[in-house]
Amino acid sequence: MNFLREIDAPINTETIDRVQLEKKSGKNIYETICILEKISKKINNKIKEDLYTKLEEFNILNKNNLEEIFENKEQIELSRFYEKLPKSTSISIQYLLDGKIKI
Q: For residues 16 and 89, is the Cβ–Cβ distance under 8 A?
C-alpha cells in the first residue's frame, strides 16, 4: 500500500509525448506500451488484493452482528480512498517517467 501514497500520477487523462516515453524506455513505442501494460496489470492486481483484504476485515466484523447493519465510516473512507486513486496505467507511466522502473 505504501507505493500508492508515494506516486504523483495524474488522476485525469493526460497526453504524454511519445518521444519522451521512447527515450525513457530505450525501445520503440509499441514495445514500451506492451511492457507498461504488463506493469499496470501487476499494479492493478496488487491494488485489488489490498482492497479485498481490507474489505474482508469489515465482512468479518459484520458477520458477528447480522441483526443490525449500519454505516461504517471507516469502510466509507476506505472506498473513497480507492475511488480517488489514479488508474494503474497512469501509475505505471509515471513510474517510467520518474525512473522508478527500468525497461
A: no
Q: Can you give the chain as a three-state secondary structure string?
A: CHHHHHCCCCCCCCCCCHHHHHHHHCCCHHHHHHHHHHHHHHHHHHHHHHHHHHHHHHHHHHHHCCCCCCCCHHHHHHHHHHHCCCCHHHHHHHHHHHCCCCC
* pLDDT tens by residue, 23-48: 999 999 999 999 999 999 999 999 99
CB atoms within 10 A of CB 61: 12
User: What are the C-alpha distances in Å from 51 to residues 7, 24, 47, 82, 100?
Assistant: 18, 31, 6, 8, 24
Q: Would the pLDDT of 69 be above 90?
A: no
C-alpha cell at position 60: 468479518
23 Cβ contact list (under 8 Å, min separation 6): none
